[in-house]
Amino acid sequence: MFARFGPRYRYYVSFTAMLGTMAMVLTATMINVAIPVIMGTFGVGQDTAHWLSTGFIAAMTISMLVNDWSVRAFGERATYLAAMGIFTFGAILGGLCNSIDTMIFARILQGLGAGMVQPLSMILMFQVFPVEQRGRAMGLFGVGIIVAPALGPTLGGVLLDVFNWRYVFFMSVPVAAVGVLLALVFMPSGKREGPLPVFDWTGLVLVIVFVSSILTGMSNGQREGWGAPIISVYFSTAAVSGLAFIIWELTTPDPIMQLRVFNNSNFAAAAVVGMVLGAGLFGSIYIVPLFVQTIQGYSPTRSGLLMVPGGILMMIAFPIAGRLSDKLPSYQMVMFGLFVFGASSLLMIQVHTDTPFWTFAIWIMIGRVGLAAIMPTLTVSAVATLKPEQLSQGAGAINFTRQLGGAVGVNLMAMLLERRTVFFSDAFASLQTPDNFTTMHLLSQFAHMLGQLGWPFEMTPAGALYLIGRSVYAQASMMAFRDVFLFIAVVYFATMIPAILLRERKPEAMAQPLPRQRPG
Questions:
Q1: Is 66 in the same domain as 164?
Q2: Is residue 511 part of a domain?
Q3: Which tens digit of pLDDT belongs to each residue from 231-265?
Q4: How many structural domains comprise the chain?
Q5: Which residues form the domain of 433?
Q6: Most buried among 11, 22, 178, 315, by the most CB within 10 A?
Q7: What is the rounded distance in angstroms from the CA atom of residue 277 to the CA atom of residue 281?
């Protein structure tokens, strides 16, 4: 391929891989703004609609582990084309479906395709870029995997306002089609020598049970109650299957995930940081639009536009961060990024109902600079000390941990938000007594306002109490969001500790004894 296209070939194949990544990640985030509309269209509740997101993330996380075997068995081009074909079929099926069950199945298909494309893209870019330019390669790769989530909610909101929810599915089809055409020209085919590699079906089943159980338990815990027997069953199943997966992968000769790569302290530390990175990225994409829509009354389009300045800044910062990661120590770049994103979350503790649009946007932009510093450096640092034959397994494992961190992080933040809202609601409600002068004054003001609006006299006290309750709940929700932002900040600051392990250890020079001098 280099002989045919010259040195620019590495950028051709990188753009091809990035198109696939962008199509996948755009779909993962655009659906979030459409879920309320889909719930109304099909008449389903949150207990069913959440599988549109959970099913996608679970399928994506699991299929990442199939990538290594598929590449060894069929080559890069065939794997890429098959993944894009499955993803595109799921997108078309989702846009044309007339039942929620079919839509959930379509989202699972999309997740299966998306999970295979992301690690494949990373492997391709590592193959075509020399070692000293891998930071630059990860900068290009990050444009697709990180910027797309920032733009996804905006595109989803615009499509909802201008067209309808079906176009949220159709939007990714043209991008995927272009990626397929470019892959036929620029993607290396690869030919297998010898028989088909052995596939670890047992490991695949165990990881499916583990991921499905833990995400289902976290998604349903708030509704069923965290002490409910069914939730205990979910988490017990996750614990047993997770332990069985670890034991099996360490003993089988052909594991679906090479867990021994985690014996490398640099890789293990990078995996921990990667999980936090995924939680912060996908969690912020979830929590920020939710805040501005529920607390500040933003429309889906306006809440999506809030993420655009940060996405543009990341697009500018990623190539710069990629070049810096080739020159500066990895741990310094990662720790800087963790600190900056933590500081951004710390600033968001100040949010309230009247926080200006651009103030919030600037806080988000600061956080995106931190993410831009982490992403290219972290991936290079993770695989730099692995053996060449472990590169594919390492790429799949680091993507798996980041994606799993995103899935768990979103569910954890939703759980924390709900619990803290209940806590503050109870605390504030206990203060609304006849002895509270502020409450009584506000109650009289609401009653007077309702009377001016023509409410019947006998209904005015009940209406005023309802408005007091809504005010208390809104205040409790705002305080809960602040606690979530504080939680994110603390986690990112704490992750700076394992990030120190990314520091390269150079062998100390052996001390040479000084020559013994004769006296006199």
A1: yes
A2: no
A3: 889 899 999 999 999 999 888 888 888 787 888 77
A4: 4
A5: 424-467
A6: 22
A7: 6
